[in-house]
Amino acid sequence: MKLDEWEALTVAQVELAAAPDGLRHSALFISIPAGHTVFRMGARPAKIFWVLQGEIRLVRRSRNGAEVVLQRASSGFVAEASLDSPTYHCDAVAAAASRLLAFPINMFRKTLADDERFRAFWMGRLARELRALRSQCERLALHHAVDRIEHYIESEGRNGCLQLSQSRKSWAAELGLTHEALYRTLAALQRAGRITSANKEGALILTLKRANRASHA
Fold this sequence. Notes:
Jelly Rolls, 2 domains, 6-stranded antiparallel β-sheet, 9 strands, globular
């Protein structure tokens, strides 16, 4: 990739500045239409992907056929664990038309081995992903839809307020719920005065009432 192209990318995606020259030059742009697959479970990893635009989801199917969302990425790396795995353990699907950077996996591994600053950057990202995964596991261990929704607003929002950056149907999959169950539970929470909702420029904003937030602290 040319230097001017990379500099333009780092204006919008500052973390890309951590990539050293050799890794930058090996990167390729990839466009994925909505609904198309980036890779499938069982395939051998050949690239490491960074999401520039759109949304990529790592998904599996439960025994009853329901979609379970393992990771949702609208910016940054996706499927980081594939770096040290002989095969992918899930599918990666574009939830919206997406633009990715693809780094050859062997070049990526070599850069991590040779470049201390990039290795520190990578370890920092993995630590943040681990914290996010722990939060997701904690949420999915909750038995009731109400608890999952309130946990999500508290942990993924700010000061008990969440601006939803995806459709409610997609959010339901991330919560491990059917979209019908999500709609019913949101309506019940609003009737009970436990949350309020508003729309801002087409985005749903959910706010936990203060008394209810205290129970989640």
